[in-house]
Amino acid sequence: SQAPYARLSDQLWSQPATSARIDTKDKEMALITAGSQVALRDDSPDAAAVAVASQIFGGSTGSRLWMRLRERDGFSYGVWGGIYAGDEDPVGNVVMGAILAPQNLAKARAAFVEEVARLRDQGVTDDEVVVARKALREQEDNALADDGNLVGMLRRDRYLGRDLGWRKARRAAIAQVTAADVTRVIKQYLVPAQLTWVEAGDLAKAK
Predict the structure, then answer these.
(1) d(Cα 70, Cα 51) in Å, to the nearest integer?
(2) What is the C-alpha separation between 112 and 141, in angstroms, rounded?
(3) Residue 99's beta-bridge partner residues?
(4) Which residues contact 80 (CB under 8 A, 6 or more apart)?
(5) 133 or 60: which carries more pLDDT confidence?
(6) pTM of the model
(7) Which of 58, 101, 113, 161 is the most exposed place for a label (fewest CB within 10 A)?
(8) Which of 73-77, 135-139, 156-160 has the lowest mean pLDDT?
(9) DSSP line for the chain
(10) Does residue 207 have a pLDDT over 80?
(11) If pLDDT is split at 50, 70 and 90, which confidence band does 205 have?
(12) What are the CA-CA distances from residue 81 to residues 8, 9, 57, 112, 173 (Å)?
């Protein structure tokens, strides 16, 4: 290329929250997803608490979203959600979603809304925080034990100007996160009025 390389920075877009339904008549399964942008980088003072909040919210098979939409209501085999920080620019995102039968779209959306409200209104427990911190530690241990993952981590950290000392400091910060910390960042970053919703499926079946 004759032009010099220049990285395009992530930006926070002032896009109002919307809701859309997409008719996919030839599909047996449907998809529901919601998300928003948040002003957050992974070296922010809030980043450790956000990582724990994300794990509790939708980061595992024991998460709030999994237990509600799959285990309790039986809507979906695939449920996900989290709050994620950017690693270059202070632009992160909230995301949640599920794959399910189209006739369950409305019920699933109501379940997502209820779980977000419950997290914001009631907060999290000390036990949930202990379990989430342990899960994050074990996930990183597993990544460090795999040569391919380790090379990828080292490559990314080198690009960002970091070393393993940065990861050690982040692990120490996560170990100090409390339930009060998690409840605070959930209220700050998981804001229902900022979520854009998209439902895609056979809308005739959804009725």
Answers:
(1) 22
(2) 31
(3) 31, 78
(4) 58, 65, 95, 96, 97, 98
(5) 133
(6) 0.92
(7) 161
(8) 73-77
(9) --SPP-PPPP----PPP-EEEEE-TT-SSEEEEEEEEE--BTTSTTHHHHHHHHHHHHSSTTSHHHIIIIIIS--EEEEEEEEE-BSSSS-EEEEEEEEE-GGGHHHHHHHHHHHHHHHHHH---HHHHHHHHHHHHHHHHHHHHSHHHHHHHHHHHHHHT--HHHHHHHHHHHHT--HHHHHHHHHHH--GGG-EEEEEE-HHHH-
(10) no
(11) confident
(12) 26, 25, 6, 10, 22
List pLDDT tens digits, range 19-73: 999 999 988 899 999 999 999 999 999 999 999 999 999 998 899 999 999 999 9
